[in-house]
């Protein structure tokens, strides 16, 4: 399976705003709607990617553990659904219900949000502080399909725990690794 790494944009980058439809409720959500008092996690995921399938249960656990502690969550799917029909909004809704997502699963049909975040793969994680400045980007943990390492969300959990403890999130962060975002056309460099 092909592997694409995160772009690892600069820490301190302000979270780009968005206004996208949640496939679960059909409501529109902006960054402000999902913003948490302690921080906000934006996840780029998809339905068909084996890397996302591998971590889906941990993403749900993570949201369950940290929403009550003041973090906001949203997952965004930006793939070209014409060429990747498994990622169609109807299927997004089905996946969200199957895994009991407690967070909005947003459809980025124009792919503008993925471009604004410079997202390159699924899964890709962006953690912003209470001022919506980027403090963590990269991988959930070291687990990958077939590598035998258990999925535990350690790297992202460590970053969120640092926020809760009023500690600085370490700047040495590993990129996420997953399926490339399926662009309708090549993104601008």
TrEMBL record:
Domain of life of the native organism = Bacteria
Pfam families named in the record: AhpC-TSA
Gene Ontology molecular-function annotations = antioxidant activity; oxidoreductase activity
Residue span, Thioredoxin domain = 9-165
InterPro entries from the xrefs?
Answer: AhpC/TSA (IPR000866), PRX-like1 (IPR047262), Thioredoxin-like_sf (IPR036249), Thioredoxin_domain (IPR013766)
- PROSITE patterns in the cross-refs: THIOREDOXIN_2
Q: What is this protein called?
A: AhpC/TSA family protein
